[in-house]
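A reminder before we start the practical. When you read a complex entry, don't treat the lines as separate problems. The point of joint prediction is that each chain is placed relative to the others, so the output describes one connected object in space. Small molecules and nucleic acid strands, if listed, are placed in the same frame. In the example below there are two entries. Take a minute to note the order of the lines before looking further.
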Amino acid sequence: MSQNIDIKALSNLAKISLDGAESLAVQEKLLDIKKIIDEVANLELDSIEPLYNPLDREQILRPDEVTEKDQSSELQKNAPETIDGYYVVPQVVD
Amino acid sequence: MKNNWEIVIGLEIHVQLNTVSKIFSGSSTGFGAKPNSQASIIDLGYPGVLPVLNQSVIEKAIKFGLATNAKISRKTIFSRKNYFYPDLPKGYQISQLELPIVQEGYVEININEDIKKIRITRAHLEEDAGKSIHEGSLGKSKIDLNRAGTPLLEIVSEPDMRSAAEASSYMKYVHLLVTYLGICDGNLQEGSLRCDANVSVKPRESKKLGTRTEIKNLNSFRFIEKAIEIEAQRQIEILESGGTIIQETRLFDEEKQETRPMRSKEEANDYRYFPDPDLLPVVISEDLIESIQQSMPELPNQKKMRFINEYQLDKNDAARIAHDFDLATFFESSINHSKHASPKQLANWLLGKLSNMVNEKNINFSKLELDPFDVSSIVDLYILGNLSQKQAGELLEYKHGSEASIEDLIAEHKMSQISDTHELSNLVDKILIENKVQFDEYKSGNDKVIGYLIGKVLQASKGQANPKVVKEIIERK
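Here is the predicted structure of the whole assembly.
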């Protein structure tokens, strides 16, 4: 098992910025977690059906009906910035 | 040399399912509402909310699966696809990775005279994201989350297409199919069908596929064809000059007629999929599949074959009618009303005069202010010889949107066709004298001139003379 964790890539994906000391501490914790995951990954499980949810039940479906009302003016009070009904965020361009 | 290269294309088509509410919430999916007025706490990803799956979304996906000869999963699960973007407030999209609802299907499309099978790898359900509007001057982006949570069926094909034309034929067929099935409104302008194309090129004799690029957001049939041609040409030029293709996502710029890289990401996307713990596995019963199977409409290609066998239409006419749902419905209903015209004759009128009317008015057959009964009555009058072809055409125009009866319109426009031999004889005599040279030519054995002479009589009668009777009179002279 590889002991390498690309902490920079992970913090990037999680949009978390870590300084040098934090980065080391997180790396250590993640390596501990990875050890447990590796143990599971090494088990012989081919004959076992994957468990997708711990609850032994089926998904309940709802009828296709509109039940929600427009609460946007109330909800937008939680947003740092809005304009003409839009939420406003720092510019994102592909 | 372009001919040494073969283009290989696979498409991912996102179809917006036409439910009234969203896939996981009771918010409306209506198009064009006030920004964020249809985004509830579930669509906004508030903490503690739970998604509840819309029954209709499952049924529509099964319908598509049955129509494409696919396997319907008896157990299907939803997963989280994690990525970070402001139009996705939860930070993940609920999608399907393992156990998608539809697997391993195919459709058959017409390529020139041949039929080609395009395999469908899978079709899975997911939620749509919101829309971002970038306002450069503000240095900010505006977000409308009304679309967030709209149900999508993503249809993934195998790389089975070999030209831009094939790709657009396939997309047209999927568009036709989802509108026939009534699972999507098919409105391309509103983004109800959106397409990404995976394009690569390889030497024609090679079995190995080349490195592919993905062109995003091709939302019209014209765009998809143009973008694929341009991208394939770009790849060929790179390979011919000794370069290599980088696997990346590109955007088509219509103005500049080029594709360009979408994001400059060094690391590949890592979506960290995992089963969504908020949603339990969906179990699809045999009963549900059976009841949907019972309610399946006739599919476009089945309809085409029936038109050929039942009504003796030729292949092209049958395809043209069957591939327009509204026209096909209009056609069959006019056959039921008609007393004298054959299906073939009605097809000619529908594909000719009436298609022109529909195109000129920029509508479709369901919006035509003429009912199939009027059309078959008017065509019947033409077949019986009571109206000339020109008159029947004009009468269709007069009847469009008019409350007046066909009889009243005929009287109002003095349209009845002259079939009375005695009355026509005098007119024919007059024309034959005026066109003595041609008449002599006809008498000396040149049969072709008769068409010219009939035309002159029709012209003199302002289109009211029955050409069949005129022909008989001239032949007797």
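Discuss with your neighbour: DSSP finds three helices and three strands in chain A. What might explain this?
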